[in-house]
TrEMBL record:
<dbReference type="GO" id="GO:0016020">
    <property type="term" value="C:membrane"/>
</dbReference>
<feature type="transmembrane region" description="Helical">
    <location>
        <begin position="131"/>
        <end position="152"/>
    </location>
</feature>
<keyword id="KW-0812">Transmembrane</keyword>
<keyword id="KW-1133">Transmembrane helix</keyword>
<dbReference type="InterPro" id="IPR026748">
    <property type="entry name" value="Clarin"/>
</dbReference>
<feature type="transmembrane region" description="Helical">
    <location>
        <begin position="186"/>
        <end position="208"/>
    </location>
</feature>
<feature type="transmembrane region" description="Helical">
    <location>
        <begin position="6"/>
        <end position="27"/>
    </location>
</feature>
<dbReference type="GO" id="GO:0007605">
    <property type="term" value="P:sensory perception of sound"/>
</dbReference>
<comment type="similarity">
    <text>Belongs to the clarin family.</text>
</comment>
<protein>
    <submittedName>
        <fullName>Clarin 3</fullName>
    </submittedName>
</protein>
<keyword id="KW-0472">Membrane</keyword>
<feature type="transmembrane region" description="Helical">
    <location>
        <begin position="91"/>
        <end position="116"/>
    </location>
</feature>
<dbReference type="Pfam" id="PF25807">
    <property type="entry name" value="Clarin-2"/>
</dbReference>
Length: 233
């Protein structure tokens, strides 16, 4: 049976990872970005309108004001609309979802390994501390990749400019969307504490593993540290 100290450290590691999964689940269900654009099409009385797309990972909302004519508000599912525009935004968005799925999987595995270590001593396999290091590291790294890819997808591609006429079913040539302004929302920012908690789970296990290793080395100290008279005897 493991010591009470080991049980405490690994249970705390599992708890931190469980909290991170809760944050990740909430992040995936809420809003990630809001993009505002000026609409230089044939607005009412020749005035320029605007278009605003609010997006989560799965659903979104488009609000148009005089773009190109009267205003409207349309809700949409993200993936069906991405299938109607160029392939790059679709691939990058799908990559984000795949990486987030990997985060869920590796975090769940990290919890299982931590719980197993709280009641056992499988040090020489990946069911030991190395399993926590590996799973939680993949979780943190994948979430950071999502932070980068998601923003690049919104900044470098024309996803929003193509979504507006696609969702509103208006000709691409009837509007010109300019001055794109991106604002990331809470769903995006929640990936930061998720990554931090994954790293803290690693740190807790490392602190215990390092202390246990130091203790074992002290117990295995060679006999030259013994008093000379005892060695001569």
């Amino acid at each position: 049976m493991p010591s009470s100290t080991k049980t405490l450290y690994f249970l705390l590691s599992a708890l931190l990872t469980a909290i991170s999964i809760g944050l990740l689940g909430f992040a995936m269900s809420t809003t990630w970005s809001k993009t505002k654009m000026d609409c230089e099409g044939s607005g009412i009385n020749g005035t320029a309108g605007s278009a605003e797309i609010t997006m989560g990972l799965f659903n979104g909302k488009l609000i148009r004001v005089s773009c190109p004519n009267f205003g409207s508000e349309d809700s949409f599912s993200v993936f069906p609309e991405l299938l109607r525009i160029e392939v790059t935004p679709r691939v990058l968005h799908g990559l984000c979802l795949g990486l987030l799925g990997l985060c869920f999987l590796t975090s769940a595995l990290s919890i299982l390994v931590s719980l197993y270590n709280s009641v056992s001593n499988p040090y020489e396999t990946y069911m030991g501390p190395n399993g926590v290091y590996t799973c939680s590291s993949i979780s943190a790294f994948s979430s950071v990749l999502v932070l980068i890819i998601y923003v690049l997808n919104h900044i470098l591609t024309k996803m929003q400019e193509e979504l507006v006429p696609s969702i509103a079913t208006i000709p691409d040539t009837s509007v010109t969307l300019t001055h794109k302004r991106l604002e990331v929302k809470i769903g995006y920012f929640l990936l930061i504490p998720y990554a931090v908690l994954s790293l803290l789970a690693i740190l807790l296990v490392y602190l215990y593993d390092h202390a246990a290793y130091t203790h074992r080395r002290e117990q295995e100290r060679p006999t030259e540290d013994a008093p000379k008279e005892i060695m001569m005897y």
